[in-house]
Design brief:
Largest sheet: none
Number of helices: 2
Radius of gyration: 33 Å
Structural class: mainly alpha
Shape: elongated
Amino acid sequence: MGLDNPLHIAVLLILLLLVFGAKRLPEMGQSLGSGLRGFKRSLSGEEEPSTLGTTPGPQPQLAAQPQPLPQLAAQPQPALAEPDDRRVDSAPAA
């Protein structure tokens, strides 16, 4: 009654897909895999492997020159609309 039968594994995967959804399963797999790798690394006493491109190195400083702002042409402001004094009453005046 273990997971040695492929049918049991398929039923388990379908159940996981229904419960967690298609978007969440890859995230859970990645976090589980990184957790297991960290656990194995801590048991063996190895240092964390250094990979290229994971840690950002010092970036060269470029001479920062202020960029001139583009000059905007003076545009006339639209006139404010005058308030409308007409009112619509829903109830007739008594």
